[in-house]
Amino acid sequence: MQETNITKFFKRVFSNKTFISAFVTSLLSLLVIIAIGAGLVWHYRANVFGYFAKEYLKEAQSENSNAINAAEKIVEKQSIFSQDSFVIDAVKKTNPAVVSIIISKEVPKYETYIDPNQQNNPFGDLFPNFPGFNFNIPQYRQNGTEKKEVGGGSGFFVSSDGLIVTNKHVVDQKNVEYTVFTNDGKKHGATVIARDPVLDIALIKIEGSGYPFLSLGNSDSLEVGQSVIAIGNALGEFRNTVSVGVVSGLARSITAGDNSGKSEVLDHVIQTDAAINPGNSGGPLLNLRGEVVGVDVAIVQGSQNIGFALPINSVKGVIESVKQGNEVVVQFYRAVSSARI
Predict the structure, then answer these.
(1) Is 12's pLDDT higher than 60?
(2) Domains by residue range for the chain, with CATH
(3) Which of the residues 20, 202, 217, 294 has an alpha carbon 20 to 30 A from that of 340?
(4) What is the pLDDT of residue 85?
(5) Residue 169 annotated to the active site
C-alpha cells in the first residue's frame, strides 16, 4: 500500500511541467558551475599545484627536522655514554697495575731539656747583679732517629715480575727507603734497578710475581684533542686518583725544576689538561684503550690544567734495556718553566 502511494507521488510530481522545468534548469546550472570550476582549476593548475607542493614540502621538512633533532640527541647521548664507558672500562683494566711509591727516611729525633747548671740572664749585662733575672732556658738535643715519610710518587708495572716505571726524581735520594703500595693495599719494599742518565725515568722492582702490568701504546700516533686518562698518587695522599682530559699539545720543550733548585730540560713532552698534581710523578697517561702513551712528569706552577708527560715511545728503549739486563743507553735530546710533581 505504501509503495503504491510513493509511486503515485512521483508520477504526480514528474507529470508537473513546472517541476520538470525547474529540475532541468537546476541540473544545467550545476553542470555549468562544475564546468566553470574545472576550467578555472585547469587554467590555474600550475599555481594550485605549486601551493600544495609548498605545503607538502613544509610539512615534510618539519618532520625531517624533528627526526634529525631526535637523531642528534640520540647520537649525543650515545657519544657521551660511549666515552664514559670507554673511560670506566680503561680505568677498571689499568687501575690494578698502578702503584703508589712512598719515600721514608731516618731523620734525627730531638727533645727539649733544661740544664739547671746553665742559667742565662735574658737582659745580658743590663742588670748583671740584679737577683732573679737568671733563667733556665730550654735546650734541644738529639735523641736517636725516627723514620718519617719525606716524599711520594707514582708508578706502574711493566712486567708481571714486579718491574715498575716511575720518574727518576721520585727515587733519586740516597739513604732512604722506598715502599710500594699496590692497588690492593699491600706494601712491598722496592729496589732501584736503573736511573736514566738523561730522561727523567727510573725503574724499580719489588719481589714477587703475577702482578698485573700495563700495555705500552704508540705515543707517535697521538693527536691534539684526543682523550687521555691520568692515574696517580695525588698529593702523595690520594692513591690511584683518576682524572680525564685531552692532549693539549705535542712536542713541547720544558725546563723542569724542583724545590731543591735542581732543573733539567725535557724535550718532546706531551701537554695535557688532565688534572696532574704533586704525587702523580711517574704515573701513567693512558689512552681510552688503556694503553700507556706517556709518563706524568711535571706541571706548570701557578697555572690550571697544564701538565706534561714523557712520551712512552722515548721510554720503551729504557724498559727493554733493563728487561734484557743491559745498561741504560744514554738518549740525547735537546724551554716554558715547570715544576716537577
Answers:
(1) yes
(2) 98-206 (2.40.10.10), 215-340 (2.40.10.10)
(3) 217
(4) 85
(5) yes
